[in-house]
Write a structure and sequence with these properties.
alpha+beta, Jelly Rolls, six-stranded antiparallel sheet, 20% helix, 29% strand
C-alpha cells in the first residue's frame, strides 16, 4: 500500500501517483533496511495541497476546572512544584504528545495564594499571562516589579529572570499562562536556569514599566533608549484596553471577522510585543455575528467577559467568562455574541509573529453562504 492519501488532484503533473508492484515493494523493503525511503511514497503527505492541522478545536470550561485549580493550591506548594500549573492539552494525539494546546502554543492555569511566591528562574521560551481573577498579585521581570489585576495582559519575555507572588494582604489569584514551549522544543533550543536566590531584588520603582510606557503614543525621553527585542511595557492594563476598544467602536465598523480588535504592541516599534507570540483583545457588539475566515497560525482564546459561541470547522462551541478555546491553523471560524444588551470580550494569543517572520502567514475569507459556515454538528 502506498503511504499517500488518495486525492483526485494527485493525478496532476508534479504529484506522486506511483502504483505499487511486487518489485517496488521489495525495493522499498531494501531501502527501509538502510534507514532510507522513496520520497514519492510520502511526497503528497509531506507536501499537502493546503495546510492540514493535527490539532482539534478544544474548549476548556472554567466552571469545570476552577475547583480543580483551587484544589491544587491545597495539595502542592509552589516552591515544591516550581510552578503550580494545571496544563491545558489539546484533545488530540498531537496535543498529548507535545503537551500543547494547539500548534506551537502551550497553556495552563496557574494559581497562587496570599503570601506565596514562585522561585525566580528563566528559560528560552517566552511567556505571557492573562489574569483571570484575584488581586494583590505581582511579577518581577529582570528587576522590574509590576502589579497584576483582573484581565491584565502581562509579558515574561524569553531569557528574562522572573518570579511571581501574591502579597500577604492579597487574594488568591488565577491566571492563564501562554508559552511557546512546543516551538522551542521542536527547535531543540530550550534552556532553563534557576536564580541564585529564591526571589529577585527589585531594581526599579514598582510599576515603573506601565507608568513609563503605558500612555498611548507617548514615550519617555529621559530614560535609556530601549533596544531589547520585546516590549518595554510589561503589563497592559484592562481599563486602558477596554477604553481603547470602546473608542475604536466609535471610529468605524471594525473587522468583519473579529469585530473591534486591538493588538497588544510594542510602544517603541509598533510591532508585536514579543518575537514568537502575539496577542489581541477584541470586542463583539450585542448580537454580533462575524463572518468566517481562516488563516495559518494557531490561536488560543479566553473569554474576558460576556457569553456567546464560535463556529470552528463547522461545529458550534459555546463560551462564557473565562472559558478557554482554541482555533487550529487553517480552520474556518466565526464568533457570535449571544447577548442582546452587553458586549462580549475575547482575549487571545497566537503564533502569528513566527508565521509573519517566515513569510508563511496567509488568510482568506469564506465566500459561501454569505460568509457563514454550515453547521456539521
Amino acid at each position: 500500500m502506498s503511504h499517500n492519501k488518495s486525492d483526485p488532484r494527485d493525478k496532476l503533473r508534479g504529484r506522486s501517483n506511483v502504483k505499487d508492484s511486487k518489485e517496488l515493494l521489495e525495493f522499498y523493503k531494501k531501502l527501509e533496511d538502510k534507514s532510507t525511503t522513496a520520497f514519492w511514497r510520502r511526497a503528497n503527505d509531506i507536501e499537502p495541497w493546503e495546510p492540514i492541522t493535527r490539532y482539534k478545536p478544544t474548549v476548556w470550561r472554567y466552571e469545570e476546572l476552577r475547583d480543580l485549580v483551587l484544589q491544587s493550591a491545597e495539595l502542592v506548594k509552589p516552591e515544591e512544584a516550581g510552578r503550580r500549573v494545571i496544563v491545558l492539552m489539546n484533545n488530540s494525539d498531537a496535543g498529548r504528545e507535545h503537551t500543547s494546546c494547539v500548534g506551537w502554543l502551550f497553556s495552563g492555569l496557574q494559581v497562587m495564594k496570599p503570601g506565596e511566591i514562585t522561585p525566580a528562574h528563566k528559560h528560552t521560551a517566552s511567556a505571557q499571562r492573562f489574569i483571570m481573577e484575584g488581586g494583590g498579585a505581582y511579577t518581577v521581570v529582570d528587576g522590574h516589579q509590576v502589579t497584576l489585576n483582573k484581565n491584565d495582559y502581562v509579558l515574561t519575555p524569553n531569557g528574562c529572570w522572573h518570579d511571581h507572588g501574591v502579597f500577604e494582604d492579597g487574594q488568591i489569584s488565577i491566571w492563564q499562562d501562554g508559552l511557546d514551549i512546543p516551538l522551542m522544543n521542536s527547535l531543540e533550543t530550550n534552556f532553563y536556569s534557576v536564580y541564585p536566590e529564591e526571589t529577585q531584588k527589585t531594581k526599579y520603582n514598582t510599576d515603573d514599566s506601565p507608568m513609563s510606557y503605558g500612555a498611548p503614543g507617548l514615550i519617555p525621553v529621559e530614560r535609556e533608549p530601549w533596544d531589547k527585542p520585546y516590549s518595554p511595557l510589561l503589563v497592559y492594563r484592562w481599563e486602558d484596553t477596554k477604553k481603547a476598544l470602546y473608542n475604536l467602536s466609535k471610529a468605524g465598523d471594525g473587522s468583519p471577522f473579529d469585530g473591534y480588535i486591538l493588538r497588544y504592541s510594542n510602544p517603541v516599534t509598533g510591532g508585536w510585543a514579543m518575537n514568537t507570540m502575539g496577542a489581541h483583545m477584541q470586542m463583539l457588539n450585542p448580537g454580533q455575528h462575524t463572518k468566517a475566515h481562516r488563516h495559518t497560525g494557531n490561536v488560543m482564546y479566553n473569554c474576558a467577559g460576556g457569553e456567546g459561541y464560535s463556529i470552528i470547522g463547522g461545529q458550534k462551541y459555546h463560551w462564557q467568562e473565562h472559558d478557554i478555546f482554541c482555533v487550529p491553523s487553517w480552520v474556518w471560524h466565526e464568533h457570535v455574541n449571544t447577548s442582546k444588551s452587553d458586549e462580549a470580550f475575547l482575549y487571545s494569543f497566537n503564533d502569528f509573529p513566527v508565521m509573519e517572520s517566515l513569510c508563511v502567514y496567509f488568510e482568506e475569507p469564506l465566500d459561501e453562504n454569505k460568509g457563514h459556515q454550515k453547521l456539521t454538528s
